[in-house]
């Protein structure tokens, strides 16, 4: 048995990256059933999900900056506005947690 991180056959590593084989047996002791799952699709879905999170964060940041600029033009007290925003956000997170 090789330890984690030891040098292994590159062909084995490639096959581990592309496919995961699961073997299962029925409760009555029948033959094995093999299920082959592609890991590449899961990786692609994970990358799309992370990209969606970054895009959403960027979009909400743009909206927040525009709204903040409008508020500071109408109410020119940035320290008070920031303190109230921090207090409201902290209260919302405390209730959500």
TrEMBL record:
<keyword id="KW-0472">Membrane</keyword>
<feature type="transmembrane region" description="Helical">
    <location>
        <begin position="50"/>
        <end position="67"/>
    </location>
</feature>
<feature type="domain" description="Sugar phosphate transporter">
    <location>
        <begin position="49"/>
        <end position="97"/>
    </location>
</feature>
<dbReference type="InterPro" id="IPR004853">
    <property type="entry name" value="Sugar_P_trans_dom"/>
</dbReference>
<feature type="transmembrane region" description="Helical">
    <location>
        <begin position="79"/>
        <end position="96"/>
    </location>
</feature>
<dbReference type="Pfam" id="PF03151">
    <property type="entry name" value="TPT"/>
</dbReference>
<keyword id="KW-1133">Transmembrane helix</keyword>
<protein>
    <recommendedName>
        <fullName>Sugar phosphate transporter domain-containing protein</fullName>
    </recommendedName>
</protein>
<keyword id="KW-0812">Transmembrane</keyword>
């Amino acid at each position: 048995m090789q330890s984690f991180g030891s040098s292994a056959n590159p062909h084995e590593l490639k096959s581990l990256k592309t496919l995961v084989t699961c073997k299962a047996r029925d409760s009555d002791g029948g033959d094995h059933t093999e299920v082959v799952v592609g890991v590449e699709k899961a990786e692609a879905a994970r990358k799309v999900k992370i990209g969606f999170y970054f895009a959403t964060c960027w979009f909400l940041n743009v909206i927040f900056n525009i709204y903040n600029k409008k508020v500071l033009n109408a109410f020119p007290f940035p320290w008070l506005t920031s303190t109230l925003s921090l207090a409201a956000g902290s209260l919302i997170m405390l209730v959500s947690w």
